[in-house]
């Protein structure tokens, strides 16, 4: 059986992570990562990282991905090296990557430390803002030598977000609960990127002030907050089952006003350019909630 150390020995000659390299970028751990030349064999260790590398124009340089790296479709044909929480290191190293794109809080730190000890350059990412998404695309494009395509995509994303900011700057606020997971029940606070989408669209996150980025909550907490709109992803891109939970509570304002909305999770829960599409959809749902206010008022002109 070929050992990790033996495979690494074959790879080390082609790897470099030194400040003397000619291609450099600063990652989301504030580390300067430098390569002697543009990356040619890239391993992306989360589905979001995979999307971002393709968005940067370097999709044809991706030699390894992890489970659920399903976008763009071409990514499905790339060799998988486990999941983002458990990597097959021997398989990964055997693919001879000259750049690994790691997830700051999502990948196993001990395994990434092992890659680092082997001299394989690791560029850590974790965009937590709209500008962070576009900046990540630009930095990846810099490392891959695909600046023309990557910087154009980053500009398209920035301009799209700016258009939404201008459109919804003065929108009537809508109290919103976003469900990010089912069991245990979880949401996001205002510091989370999804929390920023809520704010962008003129929503008010009813759990925005909670301390944890992705806090656990209870059904009782949602009932007490009584959001005007509830949005959720689900187990799959077309599974609205999570919303059935809230349809069972007719006392909720969101249920009464028919403001239970599904948003495909990959459009809103991955910090990639598709977040622009997800944000537009999110904003449209809150526009529907606002329209339901008008419909209700028209139906009951004598009510306060």
From TrEMBL:
Name of this protein: Cobalamin-binding protein
GO biological process, one term: cellular response to iron ion
Residues in Fe/B12 periplasmic-binding domain copies: 41-294
Keywords, comma-separated and alphabetical: Signal
Native source organism of the sequence: Marinobacter salinexigens
Gene3D superfamilies membership: Nitrogenase molybdenum iron protein domain
Signal peptide annotation: 1-21
Lineage: Bacteria, Pseudomonadati, Pseudomonadota, Gammaproteobacteria, Pseudomonadales
NCBIfam families assigned: TroA_like (NF038402)
């Amino acid at each position: 059986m070929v050992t990790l150390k033996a495979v690494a020995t074959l790879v080390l000659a082609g790897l470099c992570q030194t400040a003397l390299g000619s291609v450099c970028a600063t990652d989301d751990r504030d580390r300067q990562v430098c390569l002697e030349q543009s990356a040619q064999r890239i391993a992306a260790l989360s589905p979001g990282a995979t999307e971002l590398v393709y968005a940067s124009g370097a999709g044809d340089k991706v030699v390894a991905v992890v489970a659920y790296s399903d976008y763009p479709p071409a990514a499905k044909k790339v060799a998988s090296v486990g999941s983002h929480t458990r990597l097959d290191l021997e398989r990964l190293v055997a693919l001879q990557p000259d750049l690994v794109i790691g997830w700051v809080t999502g990948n196993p730190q001990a395994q990434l430390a092992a890659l680092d000890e082997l001299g394989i350059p690791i560029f850590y990412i974790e965009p937590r803002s709209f500008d962070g998404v576009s900046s990540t695309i630009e930095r990846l494009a810099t490392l891959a030598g695909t600046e023309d395509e990557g910087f154009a995509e980053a500009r398209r994303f920035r301009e799209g977000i700016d258009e939404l900011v201008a459109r919804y700057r003065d929108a009537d606020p809508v109290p919103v609960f976003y469900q990010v997971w089912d069991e245990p029940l979880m949401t996001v606070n205002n510091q989370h990127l999804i929390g920023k989408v809520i704010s962008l669209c003129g929503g008010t996150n009813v759990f925005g002030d909670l301390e944890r980025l992705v806090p656990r909550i209870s059904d009782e907490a949602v009932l007490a907050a009584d959001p005007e709109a509830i949005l959720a992803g689900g187990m799959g891109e077309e599974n609205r089952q999570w919303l059935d939970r809230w349809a069972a509570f007719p006392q909720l304002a969101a249920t009464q006003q028919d403001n239970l909305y599904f948003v495909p999770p990959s459009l809103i829960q991955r910090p990639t350019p598709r977040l622009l599409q997800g944000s537009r959809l999110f904003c449209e749902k809150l526009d529907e909630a606002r329209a339901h206010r008008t419909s209700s008022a028209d139906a009951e002109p004598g009510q306060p």
